[in-house]
Amino acid sequence: MEKYAVDVNVEQEALVLSAVRVEQLMPQLARRLYSLSSNHPLSDMPLGQLRICAILMHGPRTLTELSEEMNATVSAATQIADRMERAGIVVRTMGSSDRRMRYLQLSENGHKLMEERRSQRIEKTCEALSGLTEDERAALVNLMEKMLAVMQASPEKSLASFGCQRGVEVL
After folding, report:
1. Any idea which fold 40-154 has?
2. By three-state DSSP, how is residue 55 classified?
3. What is the pLDDT of residues 19-62, one digit of tens each?
4. Strand partners, 90
5. Host H or E run for residue 169
6. CA distance to 21, 38, 70, 160, per residue, from 48 (Å)
């Protein structure tokens, strides 16, 4: 029995160490893969506006829907949307079935800028993946999909249920 308890602790420690390393690597990877070139028009866009653009790439939203997806107040989403509309990145439209409903969607220019952004990100990712073999690329994608599936299947699970604990110090 004691051996099992020791094995579990070693396994939990290995899990925490892996989590720490992934936590360190992900932001570095994201910065290198997804930072826009300084001459791209979206490179100076505030993060809140960029998040709205990314959401609107999937279709128009009401400001209420947008604020919920951003986990922000409707008033904050409205202020950001007003600035983006003045900049010509988004447009407001009326609902086709209910003309009282107002939707926010990317303008033609906003959509073009986001497509250019996506192309740049894909190019950088291809460059990074070119240093891996085909098997390594397949394994990487598979593991990322698995991690995402675990997180999507249990978004409210506590850290303890995964064998991790808050406040764990790793040197």
Report:
1. Arc Repressor Mutant, subunit A (1.10.10)
2. helix
3. 889 999 999 998 888 887 777 777 788 888 999 999 999 999 99
4. 106
5. none
6. 28, 19, 8, 32
**Closest C-alpha among 36, 12, 7, 1 to residue 160:** 12
Q: How far apart are CA 162 and CA 113, in angstroms?
A: 40
Residue 94 pairs in a beta bridge with 102
Alpha helices in the chain (DSSP H): 2-34, 47-56, 63-70, 74-86, 108-129, 134-153
Taking residue 132's Cβ as centre, other Cβ atoms within 10 Å add up to 12
Q: Where are the domains of the chain?
A: 1-34, 40-154
**Stated pTM of the model:** 0.71
Name the DSSP letter for residue 36: P
Give me the DSSP letters along 126-162: HHHHTTS-HHHHHHHHHHHHHHHHHHHH-TT--GGGG
The pLDDT tens digits for 111-147 are 999 999 899 889 999 999 999 999 999 999 999 999 9
Reported as type and span, the H/E element at residue 106 is strand 102-106
The residue type of 29 is: L
Q: Which two structure tokens, joined as six digits, stand for 122?
A: 């894909």
